[in-house]
Amino acid sequence: MDAAHSISMSPLDAAFALIVLTVGSTVQGSVGFGLALIAAPFLLLIDPALVPGPLVAVALVLSLLMSFRESHAIDRRGLFWALVGRLPGTLLGAWAVQALPLDKMGLALAAIIIAAVAMSASGVRFRINTGTLLGAGAL
């Protein structure tokens, strides 16, 4: 890893990142989403190198723990299609992180968060099928 992408922060920044990830993980663990929505903007402010890699690593661990806790309620067919959709979504997201200049990254993240909040508040409901599961996984 070159110096431009290494993570170097003060103990105070590390403590703040831990608090942000804890709050985001708590929200995600209780309502099913929220880790990235809460943590990503703050992690970008602390150190842009914290997004997406370390955030994705925390999300993976959290997802595994939640899957273990809620294994009886997992829709395995739905999970399969969401994970299939996640592959191209992850590649596109990784490309976007590399392609967008840092000053545009915050704007893009803000637009995504506003769109997610607007969709949630609008009451729009999607029929659960293979296409919507692929799309949700990609997003």
Helix/strand structural class: mainly alpha
What is the succession of H and E elements? HHHHHH
Percent helix range: over 70%
Number of helices in the DSSP assignment: 6
**Termini gap:** 27 Å
Query: What's the β-strand tally?
Result: 0
DSSP strand content: under 5%
Please tell me how large the radius of gyration is.
16 Å
* Largest sheet report: none
Mean pLDDT: 89
Describe this structure as you would to a colleague:
The chain is mostly helical and 139 residues long. 75% of the residues lie in helices and 0% in strands. It is built from six helices and no strands. It has helices at 11-31, 35-46, 53-69, 76-99, 102-122, 130-138. Helix 1 (11-31) packs parallel to helix 3 and helix 4 runs parallel beside helix 6 (130-138). It is globular and about 45 Å long. The two termini are 27 Å apart. 14% of the residues are buried.
Could you outline the blueprint of secondary structure elements for this entry?
Layout: H1 11-31, H2 35-46, H3 53-69, H4 76-99, H5 102-122, H6 130-138
Summarize the structure.
With 139 residues, the protein is an all-alpha fold. It is built from 6 helices and no strands.
Keywords summarizing the entry:
0% strand, globular, 75% helix, 139 residues, mainly alpha
